[in-house]
Write the structure tokens for this entry.
Amino acid sequence: MSDLTTLSMTEAADAFARGEVTAEAMVRASLARIEAHDGKVNSVIRLDRDAALDQAAAQDKARAAGQAPGKLAGAPMMHKDMYYRAGKVSSCGSKIRKDFVPKVTATVLQRLDAAGAIDMGTLNMAEFAQNPTGHNAHFGDCHNPWNPAYCTGGSSSGSGAAVAARFVTAALGSDTGGSIRLPATLCGVTGLKATQTRVSRHGVMPLSFSCDNVGPLVRTARDAARFLAVTAGHDPKDPTSAPEAVPDYEAALTGHAKGLKVAVCETYFLDGADAPVVAGFEAALAALREAGAEVTRVKAPSLRAINAYVALVSRVEGATIHANWMREHPGDYAIHLSSRLYGGYAIPGHLYVEALSRRGALLRQFVAETLTGFDVVATPTLRTRVPTLAETDIDADPANWARFMAVSANTRPFNYLGLPTVSIPCGLDDRGLPIGLQLAARPFAEATLLRAADAFQQVTDWHRKAPAL
């Protein structure tokens, strides 16, 4: 345990609970790594050094006095800069909110605080969470720690980069079209989008009322299981949050996939996929079989309508949320963002209502045609190799639009459907950059989903690999 930053979230919390490490040592290790390397990555917006050290000292003192630590005590974290903490600036990655100080604290932060997670500050993100690549014209682009010329994925760019770079053990992201799973894939970490409504969104900057999700970027499926157990559950402050009881997700991890049935969609998700991605995906399927799963190829239903509808919903709702700012501060948005928001005002209301009303029927169809007789669906998270920042910069060159939008082709459908989905690292491509495996399950079947992801990680070590920095 010479380098404490190699510990995953659960490893750090468990080591602290056993008295093998101090919270102060964990925080100082994270601070040293951030100071040494974030100049190349640009993942941090605000570093709360003194507050984190004070929190760590209090935890060490409490443990020494015999108090039982929380489930996440001793684990350093930072979060996407759109989770409100009363009295602290929350920029939302924007110029418009660069000085915004909320009066409330997000429910998810309150739950992490109660579990002992050490909050060290906030992380870079795409402006107002509306970008699948991680570009930011106001705080500077976040750089992939595996190679700074390449994208981190977005919009939770700093969260993916900081966890991959071993700056922190975990980070909150948000996912409206893939914004947790994409940085998880491009940065080589684990990212979980739970079932729509599983985690409270109170005190979180909204993007799309119908598609927003709160969730973690972490090192392992076990980390995701513990994180979700702490943060999930109904919240009276968020009337859309689900009333379903929260199971012990970590207890559901059996270490194997025996008895699990995995469906592989032969169409859409692999359409036009790059050869290294296909090779990595096929190797991942072999690993799932090795872990005990039964893997079967199926025909996926058409996702053309789903992709059209998710674009309609997110654009109309995004334009609605930003209406006042678009009138008062139109020049404070990056060009690519303002153009997308203005497009939302041109979408007829009847099409928006159609997109919402068809959601239930399309969800039932997808589950019936893809998950009947199966526990999870497996796809590549990203069809292409990790793109560079330059070739996805649409402010610099609008001709990059197709490549920019292709990044989220495999993640967007699951936001419209509201299904729980996880991305886990499953290989490196021919340039040494990460490849991701995406797994999806029925609504509120996170325990099964994480069991499959954990079983994969028991027979592979991709989640243990880290960029050299």
Remarks:
- The chain has a mean pLDDT of 96.
- The longest strand covers residues 421-428.
- The chain is about 40% helix and 10% strand.
- Residues 126-153+169-304+356-464 form a domain with the Amidase signature (AS) enzymes fold (CATH 3.90.1300.10).
